[in-house]
Design goal:
It is a single chain. The chain is mostly helical and about 120 residues long. It contains 4 helices and no strands. About 80% of the residues lie in helices and about 0% in strands. The protein has one domain: 3 helical TM bundles of succinate and fumarate reductases (Up-down Bundle), CATH 1.20.1300.10.
Length: about 120
């Protein structure tokens, strides 16, 4: 008889998924209330709001949470449903490349709005 494996297998991924989903949901609720009760009038107001350090930090955490959540979720889907190793590696590589491109794009936005 084979051992069933570690009781902790997958616990790390589960914790990342839950922690990032809590942050994502909380931040989106904040944004809904923020813009419902104090909408920004124009592009200049948006840039002024976004140029504040705490705002950029919370957006940075939002993007990191979104990317981590997407990575763990897609990796789990690939591991469960793509049975061919070649297809799984290709899908994982393309996902990693796409998420890295999105991370660099978000970093460019966050770092270049401090004017």
């Amino acid at each position: 008889m084979r051992a069933a494996g570690s009781v902790h297998a997958g616990l790390g991924e589960w914790l990342v998924q839950r922690a990032t989903s809590v942050y994502l949901a909380g931040f989106l609720v904040y944004l809904v209330f923020r813009f419902a009760f104090d909408p920004l009038a124009d592009h200049a107001a948006w840039r002024a709001w976004f140029a504040q350090g705490p705002v950029r930090i919370t957006w940075g955490l939002f993007f990191l949470s979104l990317l981590a959540h997407a990575w763990v979720g897609m990796r789990s889907v690939y591991m469960d449903y793509l049975h061919s190793a070649g297809v799984r590696v290709a899908a994982t590589f393309l996902t990693a490349f796409g998420l890295l491109a999105l991370a660099l794009w978000a970093a460019n936005i966050l770092l270049n709005t401090a004017s």
